[in-house]
Automatic annotation (TrEMBL):
This is TIGR02117 family protein. InterPro entries: CHP02117. It comes from Ensifer adhaerens.
Length: 223
């Protein structure tokens, strides 16, 4: 019993130290040029929840054309009140089987802690109030913004050139799920995907950010 508690304590301590180190050590190591995340460009938003982060991009005509495939699957990009297009990558079982915390089941939790297939979640939003604790904005230059859009587009799985939508799953009627590339696990999950996307955009994050607070702190420290 005591030995088990001892190993649990050391395991928890190691995890805390890893998260702290992953937050304080920047990636990339050297600062990016001022233009990579320069002022006066396109503003994107990082949306943070208790365990998950999403990226919101402004819903312009260019974006409606570039991501028209999500509209074909049922995301109403032409909605008159839609101002943002929101992307999130995550574990298939947890995303699809846990629309609310009250519906949490052991199976999706087990897969989230081990290995699971991944999905992309796409949603729209109207006006998002800033500032607020769960919303962080960044200004990207044209090149960084284009790299971000490319990274997001490449995260969708394609068959014969077409994205693969997942039928029958929606949280609010305006959102849809799609098959995504890569495997999900607790060490490299939704928040590390978000961090990779932001680095593609020219921002610096921590070396390893598995939870929203560490990602948010690293962005404040290194940018």
């Amino acid at each position: 019993m005591k030995r088990g508690l001892k190993w649990a304590f050391f395991g928890l301590l190691a995890a805390i130290l890893a998260i702290v180190a992953g937050t304080l050590l920047p990636l990339p190591l050297l600062p990016v040029s001022a233009s990579a995340a320069g002022a006066g460009g396109t503003r994107i938003l990082l949306l943070s929840g208790p365990i998950h982060t999403d990226i919101a991009i402004p819903l312009t005509d260019e974006i409606r054309a570039r991501f028209g495939f999500v509209e074909a699957a049922g995301v109403p990009l032409a909605h008159p009140q839609a101002e943002w297009l929101i992307f999130g990558w995550g574990g298939r079982s947890f995303y699809l089987e846990t629309p609310t915390w009250s519906e949490l089941k052991p199976g999706p939790v087990f897969k989230a802690l081990t290995v699971d297939r991944s999905v992309m979640h796409v949603d729209i939003a109207g006006r998002i109030v800033e500032p607020q604790a769960a919303v962080t904005g960044f200004e990207l230059d044209e090149a960084g913004y284009d790299r971000l859009l490319g990274f997001i587009a490449e995260s969708f799985t394609r068959e014969a050139g077409a994205v693969v939508s997942i039928e029958g799953f929606s949280y609010n009627g305006n959102d849809r799920f799609f098959e995504a590339g890569g495997s999900f696990n607790a060490l490299f999950g939704c928040n590390t995907w978000t961090a990779r996307a932001l680095r593609e955009a020219g921002l610096r994050t921590g070396l390893w950010n598995p939870v929203p607070p560490s990602l948010g702190l690293s962005l404040r420290l290194h940018n």
